Amino acid sequence: MNTPPLLALRGIHKHFGPRPDWLERLGMHLGWLPPPARVQALDGVDVEIGAGEVLGLVGESGSGKSTLGRVAAGLLRPEHGRRLWRGAEIDATPVAAHGIQMVFQDPSASLNPRMRVGELIAEAPRTHGLITRAAQAEYVAGLLHQVGLDAGAAGRFAHQFSGGQRARIGIARALAVKPALLVCDEPVAALDVSVQAQVLNLFGELRGRLGLTYLFISHDLGVVRHLCDRVAILYLGRVVELAPADELFAAPAHPYTQALLADTPTLKAEKKHFVAIRGELPSPLAPPPGCHFHPRCPRAFARCREERPALREIAPGRHAACHLHEAAG
Ligand code: SF4
Questions:
Q1: How far is residue 293 from each of residues 64, 144, 321, measured CA to CA in Å?
Q2: Ligand 1 and 294: CB distance under 6 A
Q3: Residue 316 belongs to a domain
Q4: Is 322's C-beta closer than 6 angstroms to any atom of ligand 1?
Q5: Domain contains 245
Q6: Domain total in the chain
Q7: 125 within some domain
Q8: Of 140, 182, 219, 310, which one is least surrounded by beta carbons within 10 A?
Q9: Protein residue with its CA nearest to atom 7 in ligand 1
Q10: Residue 299 alpha carbon, nearest atom of ligand 1
């Protein structure tokens, strides 16, 4: 029997925008008012992450990657779609309450400036009954050691540390409830390049030592290539390509991924951020019909403007949402 993935997201839809009140709904019903503009952040996303895997989630600003991370971590509820944890509906699975933790880009925002680091790290495991107050100091010291900080850090405040050290504190805090999956949302984006490398190495070490699984969100192709087993490319709320990282970087299948990599001439360069692809990312308030990428796609044809391409398997373990591959298959 196949082992179910650690986390599976099926048919996830998430919109943002004002919900009309009863008067506005009446006006819309009578045709006096247009429907309110809503941002279509996720438009039918299917991804799964196997235990011990690192799945990279890549996209431009506005692609929906952070929203997907928050849905995966349970911080946002989708309008439609299912979240499955080891094959079971996640909301009915108590382990999910602390089986998934999030690591943020700016740990300062989630670290209470009035609490000492030891209290910050111990807060969640004490709430979940994982440790007693008597065991707290030793438990926190063990976590600080795991992320490369000494036990003395427990008595200080987060603002007394450098950016890289605060990132380590954020990771220790996430690990404190013994998660199986870390959803990492641009966790090194705000750090200097040399510090980035150290924190990325720490993620790699922790994965090996603790058997962790990561959903690793980044706009930085170099970071993703360094750390991830598979990569999902997101464009305007849809997964357009999903493939093993080495295969995706060697031979991207989707025209959007091809454009991203073509416009990133050297992944070794210090700045590996997205640079301009032909045309602007369309507004998620009114995404283009058919294939969302068609206004920017050099290979678009008539069908692309009308019909959404399904994400389909184009080779073992490789998926792309593009009519060209449908025709070829
Ligand atoms: Fe380009 Fe058409 Fe493929 Fe979309 S479906 S990526 S527009 S060729």
A1: 15, 45, 10
A2: yes
A3: yes
A4: yes
A5: yes
A6: 1
A7: yes
A8: 310
A9: 294
A10: 8
Domain limits for position 119: 7-21+37-328
Q: Count Cβ atoms below 10 Å from residue 141 Cβ, excluding itself.
A: 18
Query: What is the best residue among 303, 322, 325 to mutate for testing ligand 1's pocket, by most ligand atoms within 8 Å of CB?
Result: 322
- What is the full per-residue pLDDT of the chain (329 aa) written as tens digits? 578 999 999 999 998 876 777 787 788 788 877 776 778 899 999 999 999 999 999 998 889 999 999 999 998 999 999 999 999 888 755 555 669 999 988 767 777 888 999 999 999 999 988 999 999 999 999 999 999 999 999 999 989 999 999 999 999 999 999 999 999 999 888 888 889 999 999 999 999 999 999 999 998 888 898 899 999 999 999 999 999 999 999 999 999 999 988 866 554 444 444 445 777 778 878 889 999 999 999 999 999 999 999 999 999 999 999 999 975 54
CA distances from 251 to 41, 246, 291 (A): 28, 9, 21
The domain that contains 134 carries what CATH number? Answer: 3.40.50.300
| DSSP strands (E only) in 104-212 | 181-185
Which among 162, 35, 148, 31 has a CA at the least distance from the CA of 107?
162
Alpha-carbon distance 231 to 216, whole Å? 9
Q: Is the CB of 299 under 6 A from ligand 1?
A: yes
Is residue 166 in contact with ligand 1, taking CB distance under 6 Å?
no
- Cα(249) to ligand 1 centroid in Å equals 19
Has residue 299 been placed in a domain? yes
Ligand 1 centre and the CA of 239: distance in Å?
13
Given a contact cutoff of 8 angstroms between Cβ atoms, the answer to whether 171 and 198 are in contact is no
| 255 within ligand 1 shell (Cβ under 6 A) | yes
Residue of 304, 305, 306, 308 with the most ligand 1 atoms within 8 Å of its CB, for mutation: 304
The pLDDT tens digits of the residues spanning 88-146 come to 888 755 555 669 999 988 767 777 888 999 999 999 999 988 999 999 999 999 999 99
